[in-house]
What we know:
85 residues, mainly alpha, elongated
Amino acid sequence: MDKAIESAASQVREAASNLSTGLQNRIEQAKDRLSDAQTAVRDRTEQATYAARRYVVANPWKSLAASLAVAGSIGVIVGLLIGRR
């Protein structure tokens, strides 16, 4: 009976060890994928920022007009919402 219990306990320990190793491998793979995704997002963000800066430098008046238009639109919307109260 003791040998059977020891054998079962040994099998459980081995299965738990295999499961732990498998989980650790999956966690490492997930970390690698997240790191790759983070790098890709950072690269795209840097490219978009560079393009936006280039546009603003090349077209400062258009950029200013667009900013004022957006700010004015927000102001009108906020004013309408406040006026309804």
